[in-house]
Amino acid sequence: MSARDRRNSSDVAASDLDRGRNPESPAHVEYVLRLGDNALILGQRLSEWCGHAPVLEEDLALANVALDLLGQARLLLTHAGELEGAGRDEDQIAFLRSESDYRNVTLVELPNGDFAQTIARNLLFSAFTAELWSALRKSSDAALAAMAPKTLAETRSHLRHASDWTVRLGDGTAESHARAQAALDFLWPYTAELFTDDAVDTQVCIGAIAPACSALTPGWLSTITNVLEEATLRIPDNNALESRGKAGIHSEHMAPLLADLQHLQRTYPSGTW
What residues contact 124, with CB distance under 8 A and at least 6 apart? Predict the structure, then answer.
């Protein structure tokens, strides 16, 4: 499938989105921003591989995953702006916020590291989002429910790609195995934030907008366990890290990422293309 086709697979009919456009609670807006920011920031990170992947096929594959995520971010940030009712569009939300206004989890803003670390992050995150978007098909937010089937299909494709590479690296050479295990050991503590429910998560769960994050843990862990067993890799020790990206408290890696992401828009704020 071409990059254009994969990007367009995130598109949802305007009539479907129209059903979710009434102003909503701050928690509802915040939750949709989190989804959009996760996709935006990870898409930005993966785009950094363009021209640098170990083989041409993976250069294209990671670029396609990034395009999928950016397509999802566009829909989600547009929806967040409509729920907010303050007149902000996707570009204003994506490019004109300060660091503390972003609501992505810390996991997605970390530097790519080596290829094994990028694959490990894609595995951990896409296994989570596959569980999430599966549940969002029944969301009381009609726009999220409309986005869910195509976004879930994309996410499952990302998960297959990451799973295949995890097995190849883990069950490959001694060096590839060691790098894959080191990547998992480094990233694993950051996954705790994915499943930690805060006040926003609780409110959207009560409103049937989204599932409790903690409820997604068993399905995620089952998926990860199956992949790691095939890859001859071990599940890292459960050393949770109190990362708080969802609350707008980010790592030292976020500011340089935003400097790249926002440079053109902030340099030419009135530019048209």
Answer: 107, 187, 188, 191, 224
